[in-house]
């Protein structure tokens, strides 16, 4: 674009008229954002009072050094966006300064505007002399913990440092991670366990007593929403040990599933147990020693798959890659037979558990489950009156390892399952929890899965 010379001249003359009218060129001063937007710093300091006079009108030389810049003591400085010295209003005008700095107080200390601190899961910011905090529901909520412990619900709650500072949303998003099976899988034929009429089952059963050394310790999924991989690997580990009569006792690798079973699975962003069982049967996984858990810190993208297998005949597979860590050399692959679904009948689940070992269970986790410490868990209504965002639930999967019953304080018999979670061993009762049995509490009896380890005669001479 080119301007005609006449238009250009006109523009230039308008501009110079404007400048002459003002009597000077535009200075940085008029364009500066002002010195006191976050309140006056050093309000008690002496600035204009150190000059012998306040300057009338505009005087760009009427300045005093102020912190890392200069401030003005001429009347022109008193505009909406001000660059006056802190004591200008008091000394030159005899009025209160308009930009009162609004500090906030906390534990006897003053904090400037814009300061922040974290209150559990909420960020608090000092603005206008007050702390204003986010209003997220926190995973650790002391009113809820107190409510549970005061309510005598048959279980106790406690604070967990690993959950402190997380929102409830984050707990649901990062600590669970099992997707509900599709309708087809849900309708999968149930395997019925043969029961004699009036068959008696023990009042207490713990797989760890029947199969010592073959029931594996609960692991910790951290902030990786992959309970689908943890519960599957845990049940398969126990059952391979049991079915090989202890000749093999692998702790199978959840990471192998998280990183390599990626078809329709979301790694640390959730997955399906039917997909996990398919993978265990058709591809197999190595041990946790060989392929250690490394997905942490809310990273939904799981690391690249570092293991692969090839057929070794008769459905067996062997690894084609070394263990993805320098310390372990045993890259043996473990597989299972097809997983089967059990009925929702409490007695049948018990019999299966007693005969074949721990089973996998889907479970709906509510806000109160995170703070479970001991006792027989039931979802309790302590948060019923709280705002809606304090009540959340999501689908999880766990490993049931036993059952029992006990008398409650009011003389009733209370039946429970013993189950292993994947939140580490400092959660609950050494990583385990008890949950009400026979009433489908939190859907725990709704989808129960078992499997056989693929164990051959050669494996029996494995040790
Ligand atoms: C200076 O600014 C304050 C606050 O904006 C105002 O109340 C006052 O009238 C101004 N004084 C002069 C002389 O412009
Ligand atoms: C809960 O645990 C966190 C982290 O250990 C701690 O900072 C917090 O003060 C605890 N809350 C209470 C009330 O004990």
Automatic annotation (TrEMBL):
<keyword id="KW-1015">Disulfide bond</keyword>
<dbReference type="Pfam" id="PF05375">
    <property type="entry name" value="Pacifastin_I"/>
</dbReference>
<dbReference type="GO" id="GO:0030414">
    <property type="term" value="F:peptidase inhibitor activity"/>
</dbReference>
<dbReference type="GO" id="GO:0008234">
    <property type="term" value="F:cysteine-type peptidase activity"/>
</dbReference>
<comment type="similarity">
    <text>Belongs to the peptidase C1 family.</text>
</comment>
<dbReference type="InterPro" id="IPR025661">
    <property type="entry name" value="Pept_asp_AS"/>
</dbReference>
<keyword id="KW-0325">Glycoprotein</keyword>
<dbReference type="InterPro" id="IPR008037">
    <property type="entry name" value="Pacifastin_dom"/>
</dbReference>
<dbReference type="InterPro" id="IPR000668">
    <property type="entry name" value="Peptidase_C1A_C"/>
</dbReference>
<feature type="signal peptide">
    <location>
        <begin position="1"/>
        <end position="21"/>
    </location>
</feature>
<feature type="domain" description="SMB">
    <location>
        <begin position="50"/>
        <end position="98"/>
    </location>
</feature>
<dbReference type="Pfam" id="PF00112">
    <property type="entry name" value="Peptidase_C1"/>
</dbReference>
<dbReference type="InterPro" id="IPR001212">
    <property type="entry name" value="Somatomedin_B_dom"/>
</dbReference>
<dbReference type="GO" id="GO:0005576">
    <property type="term" value="C:extracellular region"/>
</dbReference>
<dbReference type="InterPro" id="IPR025660">
    <property type="entry name" value="Pept_his_AS"/>
</dbReference>
<protein>
    <submittedName>
        <fullName>Tubulointerstitial nephritis antigen like 1</fullName>
    </submittedName>
</protein>
<dbReference type="InterPro" id="IPR038765">
    <property type="entry name" value="Papain-like_cys_pep_sf"/>
</dbReference>
<keyword id="KW-0964">Secreted</keyword>
<dbReference type="GO" id="GO:0006508">
    <property type="term" value="P:proteolysis"/>
</dbReference>
<dbReference type="InterPro" id="IPR013128">
    <property type="entry name" value="Peptidase_C1A"/>
</dbReference>
<keyword id="KW-0732">Signal</keyword>
